[in-house]
């Protein structure tokens, strides 16, 4: 079973999940996520199910299938299909978050082999934690949500707006074409989004991922995750739902690696000015 450990030198929280070392790297024959496959034996529109190779103890790790179409990406989803994905994220967040043993629900996606995805079929994952993860906790405890996510946050780095949702390159972006997506007014979590906001979020995700794909004329490998209000019963008045997108390419075919000086020093170095990145994404 995965176990939690804390590094006594740095205080970093680590899960040791030795059983995942034996998981298959790639499907040996057919896609397990296509209808009729191992994980989707029946037809579906969207689907969530437990991960056979969990990173956390218990049954708090899930796979989320975005579409039965193996060759689709989030950027090619129709608005109604994107909305179905958002609805499933919200439903699974509410369901997992209602459990007494769950304090936080992290919805995320690793897209592309260079981001660690082992199956091409469009999908994401969910981790249901028994604690509030350090990065989310740091935002909630130390962040300024109005300055970071409020109406004036995008400045001249705004990339796209869809209804109540906006996407922009952060002023202190750690990845060259990083994006933040957030509603203009605070909403604490995915289950709290109304129908219009869910439509807006789905269309915005389609839009910005399409821009990332067009930026260098190839599918952009990326990491995406949502930060939302913890489900531990606390008030968390500063919680403001938002998504981070960390694209891995800094130039065509060139991965932005985190170097030893950055990792060892704890200060990341971005080679692309956020305003230039925003301009390129607006034009893509």
Can you describe this structure?
The protein is an alpha+beta fold. It has a single domain, classed as HIT family, subunit A (2-Layer Sandwich), CATH 3.30.428. It has helices at 79-97, 134-142, 145-149, 195-215, 260-265, 274-283; strands at residues 3-6, 13-16, 47-50, 61-65, 104-111, 123-129, 158-162, 165-168, 179-183, 222-227, 242-247, 249-251, 254-255. A nine-stranded antiparallel beta sheet has the order 3-4-6-5-10-11-9-8-7. A two-stranded antiparallel ribbon has the order 1-2. Strands 12-13 form a two-stranded antiparallel ribbon. Strand 7 and strand 8 form a beta hairpin. It is globular, with a radius of gyration of 18 Å. The protein starts with a strand and ends with a helix. The model has no long low-confidence stretch (mean pLDDT 93).
Topology:
Layout: E1 3-6, E2 13-16, E3 47-50, E4 61-65, H1 79-97, E5 104-111, E6 123-129, H2 134-142, H3 145-149, E7 158-162, E8 165-168, E9 179-183, H4 195-215, E10 222-227, E11 242-247, E12 249-251, E13 254-255, H5 260-265, H6 274-283
Antiparallel strand pairs: 1-2, 3-4, 4-6, 5-6, 5-10, 7-8, 8-9, 9-11, 10-11, 12-13
Helix pairs in contact: 1-4, 4-6
Which features characterize this protein?
single chain, 284 residues, alpha+beta, HIT family, subunit A, nine-stranded antiparallel β-sheet, two-stranded antiparallel sheet, 6 helices, 13 strands, 22% strand, globular
